Amino acid sequence: MIPALAGKKTRDSISESRKEKVEGNFAGDGWQNGGTLVINTDGKALLAFKQESPGDHVDPNEVLKALGIAGSVEVKPHTVECGEEACALPKKK
Predict the structure, then answer these.
(1) With contact defined as beta carbons under 8 Å apart, do 31 and 1 qualify?
(2) Predicted confidence (pLDDT) per residue in 66-79, tens digit
(3) pTM score over 0.90
(4) Three-class secondary structure of residue 88 per DSSP
(5) 3-state secondary structure 12-71
């Protein structure tokens, strides 16, 4: 568990959050990792992604591919805008 929390992906994610001034309770349950499942209407798993460390995230292009959606999205760090009460992604132009 401790090596996963201290892993490079996790450290990079925490560093990026701090740089973007994202605040909040990120404690969570350190013994659980998340994941993503894409299931079709027949109950067949089209995509199964399991976090290996808390800093892992599924590539959105893999989700599109699993759903049979043509095209791709650029994966880049989010720019977060923070007000007095909350933080949010900027509105699309």
Answers:
(1) yes
(2) 999 999 988 776 56
(3) no
(4) strand
(5) HHHHHHHHCCCCCCCCCCCCCCCEEEEECCCCCEEEEEECCCCCCCCCHHHHHHHCCCCC
